[in-house]
Design goal:
31% helix; single chain; 118 residues; Trna Endonuclease, Chain: A, domain 1; alpha+beta
Length: 118
């Protein structure tokens, strides 16, 4: 398996565990529709959260959340529209980012950026 995919999956596992600690209920992981993918879809307080997880193992190229582009957020929005069409019971949506920084295999920082606008 590609090392970057393994590292990304590790970050997603850490993010999923943290979200559950914060009271989120995981609905989907790595949900795909056409060529779009959502890392985590979770719910909390009657709101559906579409969550992009970014993991970095070095700060050499900046913080994880700094690598999220407008195009990526546009794809996330398109995926959310498709998901909501398939699950019309969800009326309230929110877009979030979980940033995971690991250095030498050790978790250094994780934080949730809620209600990201793009």
């Amino acid at each position: 398996m590609n090392l970057n995919l393994t590292k990304g999956e590790e970050g997603e596992n850490i993010a999923a565990a943290r979200l559950q600690q914060l009271g989120y209920t995981l609905q989907e992981r790595n949900w795909r529709h056409r060529h779009w993918e959502v890392d985590i879809i979770a719910s909390k307080s009657n709101k559906l959260h579409f969550i992009e997880v970014k993991t970095r193992h070095s700060l050499r190229f900046g913080k994880p959340e700094e690598s999220i582009t407008r195009d990526k957020m546009s794809c996330l929005r398109n995926a959310a529209e498709a998901y909501q069409y398939q699950h019309p019971e969800w009326k309230y949506l929110q877009f979030d980012v979980v940033s995971v920084t690991m250095i030498n295999g050790e978790l250094k920082e994780i934080f949730l950026i809620e209600d990201v606008y793009f």
